[in-house]
Design a protein that fits this description.
- The chain is α+β, with helices and mostly antiparallel strands and 334 residues long.
- It is built from 5 helices and 16 strands.
- The strands form 3 sheets. An 8-stranded mixed beta sheet has the order 1-2-3-4-5-6-8-7, sandwiched between helices.
- Helix 3 links the parallel strand 5 and strand 6.
- The longest helix is centred in the N-terminal third of the chain and has 16 residues.
């Protein structure tokens, strides 16, 4: 197996900054890994010697040099404070597989930071490496960590019985897996709901996004009901579809199809545009994002291009929305 160096990236997100570890992180790192409460479900005991932090940082650099993975420090963007780390290890280019791991200070729990950081690492990994499978493990008592993995799209595949013994305490671990074809750049709660209505028969079809939206709109409530008032936005294509996007140019009028992943899928009627004074109307007669298959249809004009990204003049989709197709716009005949 031939390995190449894998430089540790710097990854900004809406609230965080992921970066390579430095020697100055040793104190914060030791405080994190010596906290027995934080590590109560870890696969090893808390650190007792500060030298462990230095070894950890050295191992991170060696990992990058040997091309076996990337482990990143996570800072809160607002105040620059260190809150934990997230990384991809055991990268095997032959099997196209790697493992995901993370550890966060208890003061940072409950804010979605672990999900946000892990999503950034996965987005980088799937976009940079010929990665097909990511595996993660969680102590069966660590329900919060299991929830993070499930929000990212991981599927629980089994249980490793009595696989850890820490300070004489035996525990089981859940094994989770995420396959490239199942990866969504933004897999929030509600991304994989099911329809439970007797009048509908659900049949599954594979739908793999070709890219995702990069926008200043962060939550569904920020998005305008129609194109009017929508900000400029970027569409970032996956490397696997670069050939298909090569001829898109500034000035082109296009139709963008998105998967509105945060929209409820069990609504069949709605008040148009959220106006409660209007009567309930079947969703197929409206442009409501809440519908059995929440596909967004957006007409836009390309105003700039930057490698695998195109900028459009207006797009009412939030940041991270999966893009499922792009087509040229065709005006109806006169």
């Amino acid at each position: 197996m031939t390995r190449m160096a894998l430089p540790t990236p710097t990854l900004p997100t809406a609230r965080l900054r992921l970066r390579p570890f430095g020697d100055a992180d040793a104190d914060d790192l030791f405080a994190l890994h010596s906290n027995a409460y934080v590590l109560r479900y870890w696969d090893g005991p808390p650190w007792r010697e500060r030298v462990r932090a230095g070894r950890f940082i050295t191992a991170c650099r060696q990992m990058a040099q040997e091309g076996t993975g990337a482990r990143l420090a996570v800072d809160r963007a607002g105040d620059g404070s260190f809150i934990g780390w997230c990384g991809l290890t055991r990268w095997n280019p032959d099997y196209r597989s790697a493992s995901l791991g993370y550890c966060f200070d208890d003061a940072a729990w409950g804010h979605g930071y672990a999900t946000e950081a892990a999503r950034a690492v996965l987005r980088w990994a799937f976009g940079t490496l010929d990665l097909n499978r990511v595996q993660a493990e969680a102590d069966t008592r660590n329900v919060a960590s299991a929830r993070v993995l499930e929000k990212l799209g991981f599927v629980r595949e089994g249980t490793l019985r009595e696989d850890c013994v820490v300070n004489g305490e035996i525990s089981d671990s859940w094994v989770y897996g995420l396959i490239r074809r199942e990866w969504r750049p933004s897999s929030e709660p509600g991304a994989r709901p099911s329809i439970e209505q007797n009048v509908l028969v659900q049949t599954s079809y594979g739908l793999v996004p070709v890219g995702w939206v990069q926008s200043a709109l962060r939550v569904p409530g920020d998005a305008p009901n129609q194109r009017n008032g929508a900000p400029r936005a970027w569409i970032r294509f996956n490397e696997q579809v670069a050939e298909g996007a090569k001829d898109l140019r500034p000035g082109d009028e296009i139709v963008v199809l998105t998967w509105l992943h945060l929209s409820p899928r069990d609504e069949l009627s709605t008040h148009p545009q959220g106006d409660m004074s209007q009567p309930l109307t079947g969703v197929f007669s409206t442009r409501s994002p809440n519908r059995p298959n929440p596909i967004g249809l957006h007409r836009a004009r390309i105003v700039a291009r930057d490698g695998l990204r195109i900028e459009v003049d207006a797009l009412e989709a939030i940041d991270g929305t999966p893009v499922v197709d792009v087509k040229p716009a065709i005006d109806p005949p006169a």
